Request: fold
Amino acid sequence: MIKHARTAIISIMIAFSFSVGGARAAAGEKLPDPAKAGFAERLYRIDCGHSLANDESIWTPGENVGKSIQFSSTCWLIKRGNEWVLWDTGVPQSALNDPNGWSTLPKLIVYHVDKTISGQLTEIGLKVHDITYVVLSHTHGDHIGNVSLFPDSMIVMQRVEHSWIYSPDGENENVNQLKALARKLMGTPKRLQLIDGDTDLFGDGSVTLVSTPGHTPGSQSLLVHLKDSGFIILSGDVVHLEDNFEKNIVPSLNTDKAASIASMDKIRRMMATYHAKLFINHDKAQSDTLKLLPAFYD
Reply:
Protein backbone atom coordinates (compact mmCIF):
# COMPACT_ATOMS: atom_id res chain seq x y z
CA MET A 1 0.00 0.00 0.00
CA ILE A 2 1.19 3.46 -0.79
CA LYS A 3 2.40 5.48 2.18
CA HIS A 4 1.00 9.01 2.51
CA ALA A 5 3.59 11.75 2.27
CA ARG A 6 4.19 13.47 5.60
CA THR A 7 3.92 17.17 4.83
CA ALA A 8 2.26 20.18 6.35
CA ILE A 9 -0.96 21.36 4.79
CA ILE A 10 -0.09 24.11 2.38
CA SER A 11 -2.70 25.79 0.19
CA ILE A 12 -1.86 26.06 -3.47
CA MET A 13 -2.85 28.92 -5.72
CA ILE A 14 -1.52 28.48 -9.23
CA ALA A 15 -2.85 30.54 -12.10
CA PHE A 16 -3.19 29.09 -15.56
CA SER A 17 -4.17 30.18 -19.01
CA PHE A 18 -6.17 28.47 -21.73
CA SER A 19 -5.72 27.91 -25.42
CA VAL A 20 -8.22 27.17 -28.18
CA GLY A 21 -11.79 26.05 -27.40
CA GLY A 22 -12.73 22.74 -25.85
CA ALA A 23 -12.47 22.50 -22.08
CA ARG A 24 -14.58 24.89 -20.02
CA ALA A 25 -12.24 27.00 -17.95
CA ALA A 26 -11.00 30.57 -18.00
CA ALA A 27 -7.66 32.28 -17.54
CA GLY A 28 -6.89 33.23 -13.95
CA GLU A 29 -8.48 30.22 -12.30
CA LYS A 30 -6.50 28.03 -9.93
CA LEU A 31 -6.53 24.54 -8.46
CA PRO A 32 -9.97 23.96 -6.94
CA ASP A 33 -11.08 24.90 -3.46
CA PRO A 34 -11.43 21.49 -1.78
CA ALA A 35 -14.59 22.64 0.01
CA LYS A 36 -16.31 23.77 -3.18
CA ALA A 37 -15.15 21.30 -5.81
CA GLY A 38 -17.75 19.45 -7.83
CA PHE A 39 -17.82 15.70 -8.30
CA ALA A 40 -17.18 13.19 -11.04
CA GLU A 41 -19.41 10.12 -10.71
CA ARG A 42 -17.07 7.23 -11.45
CA LEU A 43 -13.38 6.43 -11.93
CA TYR A 44 -12.45 3.19 -13.71
CA ARG A 45 -8.97 1.65 -13.95
CA ILE A 46 -8.23 0.21 -17.39
CA ASP A 47 -5.49 -2.36 -17.94
CA CYS A 48 -3.33 -0.75 -20.63
CA GLY A 49 -0.44 -3.20 -20.63
CA HIS A 50 2.51 -4.31 -18.55
CA SER A 51 6.22 -4.34 -19.14
CA LEU A 52 9.58 -5.81 -18.19
CA ALA A 53 12.67 -3.59 -18.16
CA ASN A 54 16.15 -5.09 -18.01
CA ASP A 55 17.86 -2.31 -16.03
CA GLU A 56 16.00 -0.79 -13.08
CA SER A 57 18.81 1.75 -12.56
CA ILE A 58 17.37 3.84 -15.41
CA TRP A 59 14.57 4.68 -12.96
CA THR A 60 16.72 4.49 -9.81
CA PRO A 61 20.09 6.01 -10.86
CA GLY A 62 23.04 4.57 -8.93
CA GLU A 63 21.06 1.60 -7.64
CA ASN A 64 19.78 -1.73 -9.02
CA VAL A 65 22.11 -1.74 -12.03
CA GLY A 66 21.25 -4.61 -14.39
CA LYS A 67 18.29 -5.69 -12.26
CA SER A 68 15.03 -6.35 -14.11
CA ILE A 69 11.79 -4.71 -13.00
CA GLN A 70 8.12 -5.11 -13.92
CA PHE A 71 5.92 -2.09 -14.50
CA SER A 72 2.18 -1.71 -14.89
CA SER A 73 0.68 0.54 -17.57
CA THR A 74 -2.62 1.99 -16.47
CA CYS A 75 -5.25 4.15 -18.15
CA TRP A 76 -8.19 5.71 -16.34
CA LEU A 77 -11.75 6.45 -17.41
CA ILE A 78 -13.82 9.14 -15.72
CA LYS A 79 -17.59 9.56 -15.96
CA ARG A 80 -18.83 13.07 -15.34
CA GLY A 81 -22.48 13.58 -16.24
CA ASN A 82 -22.98 12.48 -19.82
CA GLU A 83 -19.33 12.98 -20.69
CA TRP A 84 -16.39 10.59 -20.51
CA VAL A 85 -12.73 11.45 -19.99
CA LEU A 86 -10.00 8.95 -20.86
CA TRP A 87 -6.65 9.55 -19.13
CA ASP A 88 -3.91 8.15 -21.40
CA THR A 89 -4.38 5.43 -24.01
CA GLY A 90 -1.68 2.92 -23.11
CA VAL A 91 0.36 0.48 -25.17
CA PRO A 92 -0.90 -0.03 -28.77
CA GLN A 93 -3.60 -2.68 -28.64
CA SER A 94 -2.24 -4.09 -31.90
CA ALA A 95 0.30 -5.79 -29.62
CA LEU A 96 -2.44 -7.96 -28.10
CA ASN A 97 -1.09 -11.42 -27.27
CA ASP A 98 2.06 -10.83 -29.36
CA PRO A 99 4.73 -13.02 -27.71
CA ASN A 100 7.42 -10.59 -28.89
CA GLY A 101 5.65 -7.65 -27.32
CA TRP A 102 6.08 -4.00 -28.31
CA SER A 103 8.66 -1.45 -27.27
CA THR A 104 9.45 2.24 -27.03
CA LEU A 105 13.16 1.48 -26.41
CA PRO A 106 13.82 -2.10 -27.58
CA LYS A 107 17.18 -2.43 -25.83
CA LEU A 108 15.65 -1.52 -22.48
CA ILE A 109 11.98 -2.42 -22.12
CA VAL A 110 9.29 -4.62 -23.69
CA TYR A 111 5.54 -4.13 -23.24
CA HIS A 112 2.77 -6.71 -23.47
CA VAL A 113 -0.98 -6.28 -23.81
CA ASP A 114 -3.48 -8.82 -22.43
CA LYS A 115 -6.67 -6.80 -22.99
CA THR A 116 -7.58 -4.19 -25.59
CA ILE A 117 -8.71 -0.77 -24.46
CA SER A 118 -11.66 -0.86 -26.86
CA GLY A 119 -12.70 -4.26 -25.52
CA GLN A 120 -12.63 -3.00 -21.96
CA LEU A 121 -14.80 -0.03 -22.91
CA THR A 122 -17.28 -2.49 -24.41
CA GLU A 123 -17.51 -4.25 -21.03
CA ILE A 124 -19.30 -1.20 -19.65
CA GLY A 125 -21.36 -0.49 -22.75
CA LEU A 126 -19.14 2.16 -24.36
CA LYS A 127 -17.67 2.59 -27.82
CA VAL A 128 -14.61 4.64 -28.70
CA HIS A 129 -16.78 7.45 -30.10
CA ASP A 130 -18.43 7.86 -26.69
CA ILE A 131 -15.22 9.33 -25.23
CA THR A 132 -15.51 13.11 -25.03
CA TYR A 133 -11.93 13.89 -24.01
CA VAL A 134 -8.69 11.95 -24.31
CA VAL A 135 -6.26 13.65 -21.88
CA LEU A 136 -2.59 12.78 -22.25
CA SER A 137 -0.23 12.82 -19.28
CA HIS A 138 2.71 13.07 -21.72
CA THR A 139 3.79 11.74 -25.10
CA HIS A 140 5.80 8.59 -24.35
CA GLY A 141 4.58 5.73 -26.50
CA ASP A 142 3.18 3.60 -23.68
CA HIS A 143 0.82 6.48 -22.83
CA ILE A 144 -0.29 7.51 -26.33
CA GLY A 145 -0.23 4.19 -28.16
CA ASN A 146 -3.94 4.21 -28.99
CA VAL A 147 -4.64 7.89 -29.67
CA SER A 148 -5.63 7.04 -33.26
CA LEU A 149 -8.53 4.90 -31.95
CA PHE A 150 -10.30 8.09 -30.83
CA PRO A 151 -10.63 10.31 -33.94
CA ASP A 152 -13.79 12.02 -32.67
CA SER A 153 -12.50 12.82 -29.18
CA MET A 154 -10.90 16.09 -28.12
CA ILE A 155 -7.21 15.29 -27.49
CA VAL A 156 -6.01 17.41 -24.55
CA MET A 157 -2.35 17.98 -23.72
CA GLN A 158 0.02 20.67 -22.53
CA ARG A 159 1.12 23.07 -25.27
CA VAL A 160 4.78 22.81 -24.21
CA GLU A 161 4.63 19.01 -24.58
CA HIS A 162 3.28 19.26 -28.10
CA SER A 163 6.02 21.76 -29.01
CA TRP A 164 8.71 19.59 -27.42
CA ILE A 165 8.15 16.51 -29.56
CA TYR A 166 8.73 18.67 -32.65
CA SER A 167 11.82 20.39 -31.21
CA PRO A 168 15.41 19.63 -32.36
CA ASP A 169 16.98 16.50 -30.90
CA GLY A 170 19.38 16.69 -27.97
CA GLU A 171 22.29 14.57 -26.73
CA ASN A 172 20.22 11.75 -25.17
CA GLU A 173 19.48 9.29 -27.97
CA ASN A 174 16.87 7.47 -25.91
CA VAL A 175 14.94 10.73 -25.49
CA ASN A 176 15.33 11.48 -29.21
CA GLN A 177 13.90 8.06 -30.02
CA LEU A 178 10.95 8.62 -27.71
CA LYS A 179 10.18 11.95 -29.40
CA ALA A 180 10.28 10.38 -32.87
CA LEU A 181 7.91 7.63 -31.77
CA ALA A 182 5.59 10.24 -30.21
CA ARG A 183 5.31 12.12 -33.49
CA LYS A 184 4.39 8.89 -35.26
CA LEU A 185 1.80 7.76 -32.71
CA MET A 186 0.20 11.20 -32.29
CA GLY A 187 -0.29 11.73 -36.00
CA THR A 188 -2.43 14.80 -36.64
CA PRO A 189 -5.54 14.70 -34.44
CA LYS A 190 -8.45 16.56 -36.02
CA ARG A 191 -9.48 17.86 -32.57
CA LEU A 192 -6.53 18.99 -30.48
CA GLN A 193 -6.76 21.09 -27.29
CA LEU A 194 -3.46 22.63 -26.18
CA ILE A 195 -3.48 23.95 -22.63
CA ASP A 196 -1.06 26.01 -20.55
CA GLY A 197 -0.58 24.89 -16.96
CA ASP A 198 -3.15 23.78 -14.39
CA THR A 199 -6.56 23.52 -16.03
CA ASP A 200 -10.05 22.85 -14.64
CA LEU A 201 -11.52 20.70 -17.40
CA PHE A 202 -15.19 21.26 -16.59
CA GLY A 203 -14.96 24.47 -14.59
CA ASP A 204 -16.29 22.93 -11.37
CA GLY A 205 -13.23 21.32 -9.75
CA SER A 206 -14.30 17.77 -10.50
CA VAL A 207 -11.48 17.00 -12.98
CA THR A 208 -8.35 19.15 -12.92
CA LEU A 209 -5.24 18.80 -15.07
CA VAL A 210 -2.14 19.56 -13.02
CA SER A 211 1.12 20.69 -14.61
CA THR A 212 3.96 18.48 -13.31
CA PRO A 213 6.90 18.90 -15.73
CA GLY A 214 10.21 17.12 -15.39
CA HIS A 215 9.69 13.64 -16.78
CA THR A 216 9.01 15.48 -20.04
CA PRO A 217 8.67 19.25 -20.44
CA GLY A 218 4.89 19.07 -20.60
CA SER A 219 4.08 16.20 -18.27
CA GLN A 220 0.88 16.53 -16.27
CA SER A 221 -1.03 14.69 -13.55
CA LEU A 222 -4.77 14.58 -12.90
CA LEU A 223 -6.85 15.46 -9.83
CA VAL A 224 -10.26 13.78 -9.67
CA HIS A 225 -12.93 14.49 -7.04
CA LEU A 226 -15.39 11.70 -6.19
CA LYS A 227 -18.25 11.86 -3.69
CA ASP A 228 -17.36 8.75 -1.67
CA SER A 229 -13.67 8.26 -2.47
CA GLY A 230 -12.70 11.92 -2.13
CA PHE A 231 -9.79 13.36 -4.10
CA ILE A 232 -7.54 11.04 -6.09
CA ILE A 233 -4.38 12.10 -7.92
CA LEU A 234 -3.42 10.12 -11.02
CA SER A 235 0.34 10.41 -11.24
CA GLY A 236 1.08 10.38 -14.93
CA ASP A 237 4.83 9.83 -14.74
CA VAL A 238 5.61 12.48 -12.14
CA VAL A 239 6.83 9.42 -10.26
CA HIS A 240 7.22 5.76 -11.26
CA LEU A 241 7.65 4.01 -7.91
CA GLU A 242 6.57 4.72 -4.34
CA ASP A 243 10.18 4.59 -3.14
CA ASN A 244 11.20 7.18 -5.74
CA PHE A 245 8.46 9.48 -4.48
CA GLU A 246 9.53 9.18 -0.87
CA LYS A 247 13.23 9.75 -1.67
CA ASN A 248 13.02 12.27 -4.55
CA ILE A 249 14.70 9.82 -6.94
CA VAL A 250 14.61 11.07 -10.54
CA PRO A 251 14.92 8.63 -13.48
CA SER A 252 17.77 9.28 -15.91
CA LEU A 253 15.31 9.55 -18.82
CA ASN A 254 13.63 12.60 -17.25
CA THR A 255 14.32 15.78 -19.16
CA ASP A 256 14.73 18.06 -16.10
CA LYS A 257 15.82 16.84 -12.66
CA ALA A 258 15.07 20.06 -10.77
CA ALA A 259 11.61 20.33 -12.35
CA SER A 260 10.97 16.66 -11.50
CA ILE A 261 11.70 17.26 -7.81
CA ALA A 262 9.59 20.44 -7.80
CA SER A 263 6.69 18.52 -9.34
CA MET A 264 6.94 15.77 -6.72
CA ASP A 265 6.86 18.48 -4.05
CA LYS A 266 3.77 19.96 -5.66
CA ILE A 267 2.02 16.59 -5.55
CA ARG A 268 2.91 16.19 -1.86
CA ARG A 269 1.39 19.57 -1.08
CA MET A 270 -1.72 18.64 -3.00
CA MET A 271 -2.02 15.34 -1.14
CA ALA A 272 -2.01 17.30 2.10
CA THR A 273 -4.37 20.04 0.92
CA TYR A 274 -6.91 17.67 -0.59
CA HIS A 275 -6.33 14.66 1.71
CA ALA A 276 -5.80 12.92 -1.61
CA LYS A 277 -4.69 9.41 -2.48
CA LEU A 278 -1.96 9.06 -5.12
CA PHE A 279 -2.31 6.30 -7.69
CA ILE A 280 1.11 5.69 -9.27
CA ASN A 281 0.73 4.59 -12.87
CA HIS A 282 3.73 2.29 -13.24
CA ASP A 283 4.04 0.95 -9.69
CA LYS A 284 2.85 -2.62 -10.30
CA ALA A 285 2.75 -3.52 -6.60
CA GLN A 286 0.26 -0.73 -5.98
CA SER A 287 -1.68 -1.13 -9.23
CA ASP A 288 -2.36 -4.79 -8.45
CA THR A 289 -4.25 -3.69 -5.30
CA LEU A 290 -6.55 -1.24 -7.12
CA LYS A 291 -10.01 -1.87 -8.52
CA LEU A 292 -10.13 -2.84 -12.20
CA LEU A 293 -12.92 -2.20 -14.70
CA PRO A 294 -15.84 -3.03 -14.52
CA ALA A 295 -15.33 -2.19 -10.81
CA PHE A 296 -14.96 1.55 -10.14
CA TYR A 297 -14.36 4.24 -7.55
CA ASP A 298 -17.22 6.63 -6.85
User: Anything to note?
Assistant: The helical segments are 117-123, 141-144, 159-165, 173-186, 242-247, 257-274, 284-287.
